[in-house]
Amino acid sequence: MSETFETNAQEALTMASGIKSHLSEVTHLGIEKEGLDKLEAEAIKALDMIAEVDALIEEVSEKLHKAEKQLADVQDVAKSYSHTIKNNFPMEQWERFGITDK
After folding, report:
1. Could you tell me the pLDDT band of residue 1, with boundaries at 50, 70 and 90?
2. Given phi > 0 = left and psi -120 to 50 = alpha, else beta, which region is 99?
């Protein structure tokens, strides 16, 4: 999780909690418990959402690693076939086997 993201959400939670504990001192300023409750709920929701994003990033990372391994395996086999063709046929015939490098 982005440290800045989590820090900002945690700071909002801490502030809401701190203001709630001194609510009587700030109600005349238009700050109400309902607004603080909403701030807390939204901060928690943001933390939940970034946790979900982190899980998706991890899943994508794992799938990318598997895809890269799969591609490496494909390249190894293709390279082997290419060498076999190149070692057994003249360069002029490589193209008919799908080998375009010279």
Report:
1. low
2. beta
Quote the tokens at residue 83. Answer: 């060498």
pTM above 0.85, yes or no: no
Burial class of residue 9 in the structure, from the number of CB atoms within 10 Å of its CB (0-12 exposed, 13-18 middle, 19+ buried): buried
CB-based contact 13:43 (threshold 8 Å): yes
6-47: pLDDT as tens digits = 999 999 999 999 999 999 999 999 999 999 999 999 999 999
The phi, psi pair for 14, rounded to 5°, reads: -65, -45
